[in-house]
């Protein structure tokens, strides 16, 4: 676990920014969505291990692209807190 919260926030920001660049090159068919979930799983696990808030880049991407089924699936698979789900669904 990171003892320095500034370093932890920096790493999380880097992971989310890297993932955002990854998303920019994707179109979602079933195979791509599964690959995206595998990558996202690593970022979510890192956040949980270090007691960080769960990252939201993928949720925002899904909402912005009207991918509501995928949004619900990601929220369920990764057990996002209901408040975080509602805040991102707006």
Can you offer a commentary on this structure?
This protein is an all-alpha fold and 90 residues long. 73% of the residues lie in helices and 0% in strands. It contains five helices and no strands.
Provide a concise account of the structure shown.
By secondary structure, this protein is mostly helical. It is built from 5 helices and no strands.
Shape: globular
Low-confidence stretches: none
Distance between the termini: 33 Å
Mean pLDDT score: 91
Give the helix/strand class: mainly alpha
Q: Would you spell out the secondary-structure blueprint of this structure?
A:
Layout: H1 5-24, H2 30-49, H3 57-64, H4 68-77, H5 82-89
Characteristics:
0% strand, globular, single chain, 90 residues, mainly alpha
């Amino acid at each position: 676990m990171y003892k320095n919260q500034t370093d932890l926030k920096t790493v999380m920001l880097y992971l989310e920014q890297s993932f955002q660049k990854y998303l920019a090159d994707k179109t979602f068919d079933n195979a791509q969505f599964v690959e995206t979930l595998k990558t996202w799983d690593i970022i979510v696990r890192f956040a949980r291990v270090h007691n960080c808030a769960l990252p939201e880049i993928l949720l925002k991407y899904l909402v912005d692209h009207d991918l509501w089924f995928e949004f619900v699936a990601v929220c369920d698979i990764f057990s996002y807190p209901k408040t975080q789900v509602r805040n991102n669904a707006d």
